[in-house]
């Protein structure tokens, strides 16, 4: 984790891949996968990041931070992509934020407000 905090992402990825090879506990593996997703997010590799967040959630569906990061990536994609598909991306972001908020009520206040403003919160 020190390599990651020092922004030495290549080195951090090597350590995380090694940890994945050694770790057998699904819960611990979920956090390793989540951290790999964080590095790919930091590097702007959003497709890879989403893949690792999904893999983390398969092992531990109680990672609100993974749902939040996935929502942020979807929300970011809206600004970069085709306006015709923007609504679908907004809907996907909303679903991820709803899951994050359901797991940790009181967190993700800005996302909660966005859901209310866009009338996506039930």
TrEMBL record:
Organism ancestry: Eukaryota, Viridiplantae, Streptophyta, Embryophyta, Tracheophyta
Top-rank taxon, per record: Eukaryota
The keyword Metal-binding is annotated on this UniProt entry: no
Protein name: Putative 43kDa postsynaptic protein
TPR repeats: 30-63
Keyword Repeat attributed: yes
A Pfam family: TPR_1
Keywords from the UniProt entry: Repeat, TPR repeat
Native organism: Helianthus annuus
A biological-process GO annotation: photosystem I assembly
């Amino acid at each position: 984790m020190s390599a990651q905090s020092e922004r030495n992402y290549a080195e951090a990825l090597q350590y995380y891949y090694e940890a994945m090879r050694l770790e057998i506990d699904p819960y611990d593996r979920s956090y390793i996968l989540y951290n790999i997703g964080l590095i790919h997010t930091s590097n702007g590799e959003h497709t890879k990041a989403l893949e690792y967040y999904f893999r983390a959630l398969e092992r531990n569906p109680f990672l609100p931070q993974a749902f939040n990061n996935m929502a942020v990536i979807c929300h970011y994609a809206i600004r970069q992509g085709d306006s015709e598909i923007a609504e679908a991306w907004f809907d996907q972001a909303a679903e991820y934020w709803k899951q994050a908020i359901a797991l940790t009520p009181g967190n993700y206040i800005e996302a909660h407000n966005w859901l209310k403003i866009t009338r996506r919160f039930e």
